[in-house]
Amino acid sequence: MELDLTTFLMEIANFLILVWIMNRLLYKPVRTIIAKRQTAMAFIRSEAERVHAEAAELGQTYQGRLASWDAEKAELRRQLLAEITDERQRLMEGLDLELTDMRDKARVTEERQAEERVRLCEERAIAKAGQFAARLLTRLATPELGKQLAEMLLEDLTGLPDEQRRAIIQSLSREGAMVRVVSAHPLAEVVSEEFEQRFREIFPEARLFSFSVNEDLLAGIRVNTGPWNLSANLKEELAFFRGGINGE
Amino acid sequence: MLDGTHALFYLGPLAVSTTVVTTWGIMVILILLSWVFTCRLCIDPGPLQIAVEGVIEAIQVAVSEVLPQRGDTVFPFVATVWIFIGVANLSSLVPGIHSPTGDISATMALALLVFSSVHWFGIKIVGLRHYLKHYISPSPILLPFHIIGEVTRTLALAVRLFGNMMSLEMAALLVLLVAGLFAPIPLLMLHIVEALVQAYIFGMLALIYIAGAIQTLEARHPLKEEES
């Protein structure tokens, strides 16, 4: 172990030379290439970050557009639902009106049918009543009933209004005016004379009488003088009865 | 054989020792390898370039961690210390080659360079007046202690490396003499580890001394470069 000054100085010189050469030959080139690579990597990283930022921005824009589309779609759907609701309400109101009209028509038709049925029933009832009365009165149609009907006719003639009375008198006053008496049963001569007498008491202008028989009258008589027909028989009374029921 | 101080030849009055010749050989090898490596540098590196860049990058990271602001200034010196001492320590694995770091003259030279670099970077950063002033701060009484501290740590730096490498070579020689061929491989492995550890210790201490001086001065005084 000995410190050699020459070696010491030459080692110092050698090391300083080595530092200088290594710095120029190794460190600087390697650090330069590393710096270039880092610069390139930084550029690539910045490019990647820029692309990433652009992608993020595009993504955000796309998200915003999607949100806008969703909002527009929701608005259109809301409008469509509102239109459907309005249309449905309008159609329902139309259906309600149509249904009301149909109900009214059905009600009117039903009322008419009911009235028609009532009317038919009434007609049938009247027909039945007429048949029943005709059958009943046919069995009761006797000469005595005819006599009573003649009496009833004379009583009715007595109570005629003056205007009709004058018209009958005027008809009887014509020359050749004949009083035609039609009865359902042959009248006895006494009865005929009594009828003539009593008729002249009411209408003194009556001069000529003729008597005939018509069994269709069932019972009672019909007096025809000029345009006047004075009836008191079952046939015409029944017809009057049926007409009275029918409102005729 | 263990003594590299004897002169191999003379350059005029200068006696060129084995240590110097070995150093020249190491320098040539390092320069040639650097030239070969840097001839084919490209952005897309191959395996060899990746390895070289890895070594340089590792040294730069270590320097930057200790000196974040002055790393680029100190990096060439510290990197060369690490690489040179590492290769010099490993050179003794070659039969017949004497490691330059096993010579106290070489280690003293390296320690003196570290000592000088501390003052060089200190004066460069804060100026001569402020730099000398820190020896008498906070009190002039501390001046002798500062000087003793500077000398002893430099001496320790040199002797530590010299002692470890010389003892490692001597121990290896003794083991080889005693155990013959039974222990060379473990011994070589120990030699490699010890060589790299000593290089790392020397370089890291140099970096810490420089960084300590720079950061202490930067904390006490405004930077000379900033003033200018």
For the biggest β-sheet of chain B, the strand order reads: 1-2
| Overall helicity of chain A | over 70%
> What is the number of beta strands of chain A?
4
Name the structural class of chain B: mainly alpha
Report strand order across the widest sheet of chain A.
Answer: 2-1-3-4
Question: Mean of the pLDDT scores of chain A?
Answer: 88
**Count of helix runs of chain B:** 8
What sort of overall outline of chain B do the alpha carbons produce when their principal axes are compared? globular
- The ordered H/E elements of chain B are EEHHHHHHHH
Please tell me how large the radius of gyration of chain A is.
Answer: 67 Å
What's the story with the biggest beta sheet of chain B?
2 strands, antiparallel
Give the termini separation of chain B.
Answer: 54 Å
Kindly report the oligomeric state of this protein. Answer: heterodimer
Amount of beta strand of chain B: under 5%
Describe the structure.
- The complex is a heterodimer of chains A (248) and B (228).
- Among the domains of chain A are: 86-140; 142-245, no CATH class.
- Helix content of chain A is 76%, strand content 10%.
- Chain A has 5 helices and 4 strands.
- Chain A has helices spanning 5-140, 143-158, 162-172, 189-202, 234-245, and strands at 178-183, 208-213, 220-225, 228-233.
- The termini of chain A are far apart.
- The mean pLDDT of chain A is 88.
- Chain B has 228 residues and is mainly alpha-helical.
- Chain B has one domain (22-29, 46-227).
- Chain B contains 8 helices and 2 strands; from the N terminus they run ββαααααααα.
- Chain B has a two-stranded antiparallel sheet with strand order 1-2.
- Classes of the chains: A alpha+beta (248), B mainly alpha (228).
- The A-B interface holds A 1-12, 14-19, 21-23, 25-27, 29-31, 33-34, 36-37, 40 and B 5, 14-17, 19-20, 23-24, 27, 30-31, 34-35, 37-38, 41-43, 45, 52-53, 56-57, 60, 75-77, 79-80, 83-84, 100, 103-106, 108-110, 112-113, 162, 166.
